[in-house]
Structure formats: C-alpha cells, structure tokens
Design brief:
- The longest helix is centred in the middle third of the chain and has 11 residues.
- Strand 1, helix 1 and strand 2 form a beta-alpha-beta unit.
- This protein has a three-stranded parallel β-sheet with strand order 1-2-3.
- It is mainly alpha-helical.
- The chain is globular.
- It binds NADP nicotinamide-adenine-dinucleotide phosphate.
C-alpha cells in the first residue's frame, strides 16, 4: 500500500503504472485537490455533463485509476454525496482529466504537504 497525492489534474502515470506492475495498492490522498479543484471550469463542465458534482467526478476518477480515494469532509451531506459514485467516466473524459494540470492549490496551498512549511 502506498499513499500518494492523486487527483484529476495530478495523475503520476509512471508511479501509478509502477505500483500496478509491482502489486502496490494506491491510496489517493486529497482526491478533491484539497478543495481547489471545485473552482476548475473544465472539471465543473464535465461534472455537469455527467450529472454529478465536482467532488463526485473527482472521487470516481481516482476509483477508475484503480486507487482507493481518501476524501476528507467535515460535512455529513458531503460525505453522503461523496459515496454516491456509481457512474462511469468515459475513456475520453478520463484521458482529459489525466491531461489536465490542476496543481495550483491557490489559497489551499497553505496545507503543509503543499507549502513546504
Ligand atoms: N499521506 C499524506 O501525506 C496526506 C497528505 C494530505 C492529506 N492526506 C489525507 O487525505 C485526506 C484528504 O485530504 P485533503 O483534506 O487534503 O483533501 P480533499 O479530500 O481533496 O479535499 C477536502 C476539501 O474538499 C471539500 N469537500 C469534500 N467533499 C465535498 C463536497 N461533496 N462538496 C463540496 N466540498 C467538498 C472539503 O470541505 P468540507 O469539509 O466542507 O466538505 C475540504 O475543503 C485527509 O484524510 C488527509 O489526512 C494525507
């Protein structure tokens, strides 16, 4: 088991492939990009097309990357919604989410892992 920063817009392909090839299960921490991706227009448009929320799309994305998502929420409604990910992201949309660069965490970058503080 390895816990890695994995989310739509940050998919370390070589590392994910290495883990898959060597039997290491990946846990995706911060699957909603620490909340920063909620404002991403391309991701929001894709979520709308799928009839889901951005967090649901992002959590589903990590599942389809064969990772175990570790979303954090302090809101019971969000927690309930985050578990409702029984839909399929198309191969084309998965590829688009992999191509995306969503590693600017903005105001959320104060989190120690990202800020280096
Ligand atoms: N191993 C490591 O080095 C490492 C590093 C970082 C994090 N982690 C772990 O990974 C987990 C998650 O990380 P994280 O907190 O950085 O990021 P995250 O799960 O990507 O994002 C959390 C943010 O998303 C919001 N959110 C969640 N569900 C939502 C929904 N349905 N609608 C709207 N907003 C929603 C949360 O706000 P609300 O509370 O308002 O819902 C919170 O602001 C944590 O348990 C953490 O311990 C591990």
């Amino acid at each position: 088991m390895n816990q890695l920063l994995v989310h739509a817009g940050n998919t370390p392909r070589e590392l994910l492939d290495h883990c898959a090839a060597t039997g290491i299960r990946v846990q995706a921490y911060s699957p909603i990009a620490h909340g920063a991706i909620l404002e991403h227009p391309e991701v929001a448009a894709m979520a709308e097309r799928h009839g889901v929320s951005v967090p649901q799309l992002c959590i589903r994305c990590t599942l389809q990357l064969d990772a175990v998502p570790l979303p954090k929420t302090a809101n019971p409604e969000h927690m309930r919604a985050n578990a409702e990910v029984d839909f399929e992201i198309t191969g084309e949309d998965m590829a688009a989410l992999e191509r995306l660069d969503a590693r600017d965490y903005g105001e959320h970058a104060a989190f120690p892992v990202y800020s280096g503080k």
